[in-house]
Amino acid sequence: MSVHYQPVECKSFLHHFNKKFLPFKWGANPYRGCEHSCPYCFARYTHEYLGYDSGTEFDNKILVKVNAADVLEKELSRPRWKREAVNLGSVCDPYQPAEQNFKITRQVLEVFAKHKNPLFVGTKSNLILRDLDILLDMAKHTALIVYITITTLDDNIRSKIEPRAASTEERLDVVKRLSDVGVTVGVLSMPIFPYLTDGRDSINGVVKAVSDAGAKDMVPGVLDLRASCRNCVLSLIEEEFPDLLPKYLALYKTAYAPKDYTGKIYRAVEIARRSCGFKKFEMPVLTEKQTTLEV
Ligand code: SF4
Question: Which architecture does CATH list for 4-275?
Fold first, then answer.
């Protein structure tokens, strides 16, 4: 796949969320579009606001916010800024392949660290280990939670649903290496794909593997097929798992799987989580005073 990187100057870097259930009110994205190319990516539709399509152009037209660190420095220096928690990578993966060359995420991490600003960072890439020095500094001086997505231990399935992201083994290695040095790591096990990664063995395997690697929590989410995800995911199923297509069409009469199905999956995850010693899930809360975090 040939990828086009478009340098852009942003006017603001932080954007405000208005969702009460999230533990942060601010998001930040060094890149728009994502080369990891997950068909289920909920952010695909956002590329349409930029004049691109939400299919292949989301994967291969990547906007690079070259002035992000300068803009962030100004935003965090404003007297009215209250050091609220920010989610770095709220729309697109901050450690996607572009970061190898452009290093925008590293630059903004340095600014967050300088201001000791509470931070969530989410990724599916082991490139985050490059920035271990800054993450360690932040873990010591402010509130930081890294979220790694791990959807399955089956790397054959992983390579189809997250084709250009790090392998499952590499992601487990990230969880372990960050946890071993005291960075708080949670795992997002989402989306769980019906009939592919929703079996009891699959769920138990993921929960045990992330627990053994040192994750402080594991948060599940069943696949939904909102907006452009529907076509992307159903095309993937048709191409790679054609026998499952009728079952997907039957299950996803709307964008969401029915509650009796999702309830069954979440119960299975909860049993697995408890057996590995995870506490009842609560949304993590970051405050600048926290030095030890629990998720
Ligand atoms: S890594 Fe995240 S942002 Fe990138 S395509 Fe996958 S789901 Fe979307």
Answer: Alpha-Beta Barrel (3.20)
